[in-house]
Specification:
Number of strands: 11
Number of helices: 8
Radius of gyration: 26 Å
Distance between the termini: 11 Å
Strand order of the largest sheet: 2-3-1-5-4-9-10-11
Order of helices and strands: HHHEHEEHEEEEEHEEEHH
Helix content: 40-55%
């Protein structure tokens, strides 16, 4: 299908949805809600198509005016200038439209489950994991999101061995999905008397939070164990059988939560994390199929991949996937400049996907 035909198909679909909504979507509230969302998602695309078509139509009118021998010199000069302006602007309009027409990640609008684990480096890795957790807390606050710890295992000196948190708000997963991977830090530990630079790491995973409609859990697939909480905890946290461990038998995924005094709250949190992990496993399998021929790793979400280094002596943060280095380590860890990194990663992924669409179109043209 040509680009022009694709744009016309979008306009036709938009008109169909409009008609269905005007008719009340056959009295089905759920269908009406689904159509409303599709309609809202299409609005910027339709506005872009209409603006492009208006510019092309205006160019055609100007071309006729310029070619008309009865057009006086002053009018022709104005028409030529306007024609050249439109001609220069149209490629930008087309590029913006192509971006809008790229397939959307259905998980982008979802809330997220954030998991951070200290890696190599002992206590220093745990302190760095805590730094990352605070960075995402501040980032969430800056965007007006809400963040709640679901499970935290700290080491008592301000470090975190492992933490899971839910983050809720607008387009949370879209902004955080590129954070999955190994984050490395290079700095002199406060406890290091010799002043030597240590390298340690923490692993970050960002999972789209799945709803019950995304992942249906069969009770027969779950083994739920209730046990007594261990480790530090006040007011009966570790004196009652409130800890919950859920094993998903088909996949072997295990989630254990013991932070709450309530067994029911721990179970609800564990199920939330389990759904997110199962949903992400499905997405990863689909992504692997689609990305088999792609070289870019920006959006891979592979948590074993070293993605970023935070170098304190040089005050820099380097994202290795796109070769971006910013000398803003304090602002990034404060959550203020993290958007610059996220924006660059989003732009690169978008460019890679546009290139892939272009290659597919070229291949289809050659094959035809």
């Amino acid at each position: 299908m040509s680009i022009e035909a694709s744009l016309d198909a979008v306009l036709v679909r938009y008109g169909e949805i409009e008609a269905q909504m005007s008719a009340g979507a056959a009295g089905d509230p759920r269908e009406y809600a689904r159509l409303s969302k599709e309609y809202a998602d299409m609005e910027p695309v339709v506005a872009g198509i209409r603006a492009l078509k208006a510019a092309q139509s205006e160019m055609a009118d100007l071309a006729e005016l310029i070619a008309d021998p009865e057009t006086d010199a002053e009018m022709r000069e104005m028409a030529e200038a306007e024609f050249l302006d439109l001609k220069a602007d149209i490629p930008d309009r087309e590029m913006r439209l192509q971006r809008l027409l790229l397939p959307k990640d259905e998980a982008d609008a979802k809330n997220a489950i954030l998991e951070i684990r200290a890696g190599t480096g002992g206590d220093e890795a745990a302190l760095f994991a805590a730094d990352l957790y605070r960075m995402y807390q501040r980032f969430a606050e800056k965007h007006g999101w809400t963040m709640e710890a679901l499970q935290m295992n700290d080491i008592g000196i301000g470090g975190i061995k492992e933490v899971q948190a839910s983050i809720a708000g607008r387009n949370v997963f879209a902004r955080l999905k590129y954070e999955s991977g190994v984050h490395r830090v290079q700095r002199v530990p406060e406890t290091e008397s010799g002043g030597r630079i240590h390298t340690s790491a923490a692993t970050v995973a960002v999972l789209p939070e799945a709803e019950e409609v995304d992942i249906a859990l069969n009770d027969n697939d779950l083994r739920i164990d209730i046990y007594r909480s261990s480790g530090p905890g006040g007011q009966s946290v570790n004196t009652t059988d409130s800890a919950v461990r859920i094993t998903h038998l088909p996949t072997g995924i295990v989630v254990a939560i013991q932070d709450e005094k309530s067994q029911h709250k721990n179970k609800a949190k564990a199920l939330k994390i389990l759904r997110a992990r199962l949903y992400e496993a499905e997405r990863a399998a689909q992504h692997a199929e689609r990305a088999a021929a792609r070289k870019s790793q920006v959006g891979s979400g592979d948590r074993s991949e070293r993605i970023r280094t935070y170098n304190f002596p040089q005050g820099r943060v380097t994202d290795h996937r796109i070769g971006l280095t910013l000398y803003k380590i304090d602002q990034i860890l404060a959550g203020d400049a993290l958007d610059e990194v996220v924006d660059a990663l989003t732009a690169r992924d978008e460019a890679d996907r546009l290139a892939a669409v272009g290659e597919e179109a070229a291949a289809a043209g050659a094959g035809g």
